[in-house]
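Section 5: illustrative case.
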């Protein structure tokens, strides 16, 4: 066992993160905004279109301090190629500003023994750096293959059942063959998504798409289908990463009106146990 169980429960300041209008636009392009119909999403992809006010995609919060940063405790001594993103949730207090500065506090909630691997769950609270006003709560789970079997707590899952009827809405977005190269410019430079040699070490035939890129595509679908494209109506979303996506594949987001969703590539579920939460007015 090479996971650092002593790190469980530790809390740390993840420092400040500043972003600009350009960063928000680059993220939007990285998750496919405007790729099919550029005029339809100009509020997320431009800052100077006539009669259009720039807005920020809600899922942009995952790159502004919701990953725990690099200041936290070392999770363990293991091969980085065996690390996969397992789950992600976000809860926003309101629309993200076009330009901003936040600071975050993170905590390692637990390291669960899943048998075939270990699941490390981290939570981050993000606040405005100047006022301390709450901005978002973010949780993510990291699965380390081959590090299970240490006799630890297995953990539980929140109840979730897929409806026994077709989705009320299905939104299909194509991804580009170079989607991962574009998305990585928002900060996630993990070579699993760009380097064929590293991807092969991890057991993949070619680099795969970032899980958070798939998450961002899915968030766009939820925003447009359930929120009338208004970030102020977007409360939060959570999902589990079920299967890898290869850049160039089509993502079909199956949405039920009660907020449950799954994202598929063909018949394969790639995001599972999805729950969307809107803002009550």
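Designed sequence:
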């Amino acid at each position: 066992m090479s996971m650092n169980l002593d790190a469980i429960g530790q809390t740390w300041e993840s420092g400040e993160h500043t972003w600009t209008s350009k960063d928000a636009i680059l993220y939007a392009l990285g998750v496919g905004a405007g790729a099919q119909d550029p005029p339809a999403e100009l509020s997320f992809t431009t800052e100077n279109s006539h009669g259009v006010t720039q807005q920020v995609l809600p899922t942009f919060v995952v790159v502004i301090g919701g990953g725990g940063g690099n200041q936290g405790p070392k999770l363990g001594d293991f091969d980085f190629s065996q690390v996969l993103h397992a789950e992600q949730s976000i809860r926003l207090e309101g629309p993200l500003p076009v330009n901003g500065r936040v600071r975050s506090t993170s905590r390692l909630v637990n390291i669960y023994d899943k048998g075939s691997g270990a699941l490390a769950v981290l939570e981050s609270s993000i606040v405005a750096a100047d006022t301390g006003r709450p901005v978002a709560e973010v949780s993510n789970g990291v699965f380390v293959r081959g590090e299970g079997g240490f006799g630890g707590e297995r953990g539980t899952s929140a109840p979730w059942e897929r409806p026994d009827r077709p989705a009320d809405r299905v939104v299909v977005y194509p991804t580009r063959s170079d989607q991962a190269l574009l998305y990585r410019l928002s900060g996630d430079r993990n070579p699993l998504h760009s380097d064929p040699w590293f991807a092969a070490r991890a057991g993949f035939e070619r680099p795969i798409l970032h899980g958070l890129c798939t998450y961002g595509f899915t968030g766009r679908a939820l925003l447009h289908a359930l929120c009338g494209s208004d970030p102020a109506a977007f409360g939060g979303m959570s999902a589990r990463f079920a299967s890898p996506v290869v850049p160039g594949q089509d993502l079909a987001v199956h949405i039920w009106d009660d907020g449950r969703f799954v994202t598929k590539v063909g018949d394969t579920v790639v995001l599972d146990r999805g729950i969307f939460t809107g803002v009550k007015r």
